[in-house]
Amino acid sequence: MRSVEVPEYEIHEEVRADPTRTALTIVDMQNDFVKEGGSLVVPDAEATIPNIKSLLDLARESGMRVVYT
Fold first, then answer.
1. Are 16 and 58 in contact (CB under 8 A)?
2. In the chain, how many domains are there?
3. In which domain, by residue range, is 63 found?
4. d(CA 66, CA 68)
5. pLDDT tier at 10 (50, 70, 90 boundaries)?
6. Which of 11, 22, 35, 58 has the fewest CB neighbours in a 10 Å radius?
7. Which residues touch 34 (CB under 8 Å, ≥6 apart)?
8. Domain-embedded: residue 49
9. Above 90 in pLDDT, residue 56?
10. What digits encode the pLDDT tens for the residues 14-52?
11. Is the pTM value of this prediction over 0.85?
């Protein structure tokens, strides 16, 4: 198994975005990447689902464009 080093980054308690000028992009949430037993499974990817769902709900409520890849 390979590891990737992630550089330090700042975490903000609050982020504001203009929903008319912003899109939420959701990448690689197919079962093969997320579910155990998938041919391209990413370790711990399934644990990200609740946070992504919360962001998706907020984006939809504000009228923000949502893009899936």
1. no
2. 1
3. 23-68
4. 7
5. very high
6. 11
7. 28, 41, 42, 45, 46, 49
8. yes
9. yes
10. 988 999 999 999 988 787 778 888 888 888 888 888 999
11. no
